[in-house]
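Question thread 4412

I'm putting together a teaching handout and wanted feedback from people who do this every day. The idea is simple: show students a protein as raw sequence, then show them the structure tokens that encode its fold, then repeat with a second protein so they can compare. Below is the first pair exactly as I plan to print it.
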Amino acid sequence: MAQVDLVTHTRVPRGLGPQVGKALQRLLAELGQSDKTLTVILTDDAEIRALKQQHWGEDAPTDVLSFPTYEPGDSFIPPHLGDIVISLETAQRQAEQLGHSLPHEVKVLAAHSLWHLLGHDHRSEAEWEGFHRVQQRILEL
């Protein structure tokens, strides 16, 4: 089964990490990637802002960042897909604005980022379809 390593750099509500990890494992299996691993880092706005500044040159917090361990489009996909970094502070604000729970929001962000790690982007409306599909599916797992 796929392995999801969880790293916490901020206070995480009890049970959130395992809940998200299990849902990601199931999603990876459904996507035919059960032999892969990835790392999920749960952090705060300050850390994700610093990462966004360092890697994208943008000085603002965000909800999620994806760091693939390979160049999307390569024919060889390594066993470790990469890192998903989620700001729990931003995720909490978004969950409140959208009227759902923090676990719901974190799962959606994790699925979105996983789809990026698998080499997908959302430059067009048609490309968004895959993101919407995995984001909905992770909530059902």
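The second pair follows. I'd like the answer to focus on this one:
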Amino acid sequence: MNEEFPHQVIFQVYTEPQSDGGGGYLPGTGGWFNLDQEDFYGFLDTPKSGEIYQAQQLQHPFDRYLFYPYRTDIKTDMRVTCEGDTYELVGKPLDQGGQHEIMKVSLRLVANG
């Protein structure tokens, strides 16, 4: 943790349940699983009300921005947990300024996540 990235973040990936061969699924398989990332930090930011309004008008609502150190393995089909809440990624993570330093992605709160 540092001043620039004060929030502990956990990225999650979804895996399909494994078939038991008889039309059902093996217990404990499938669902959302944490990536193997220890002590990963980002900055969870609240967008301005105008940004939220514009996104809703375009039918692409989101609740928060997540800024994190540059990396390329974060994909749009992942989720994020932070401070007790779960968010889905809304759109592709973007390299801020093309400098390979900080990434930004929009997040939408998952109900009962």
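Top answer:
Good format. For the second protein you could add a caption like this: Helices lie at 49-57. DSSP finds one helix and eight strands in the chain.
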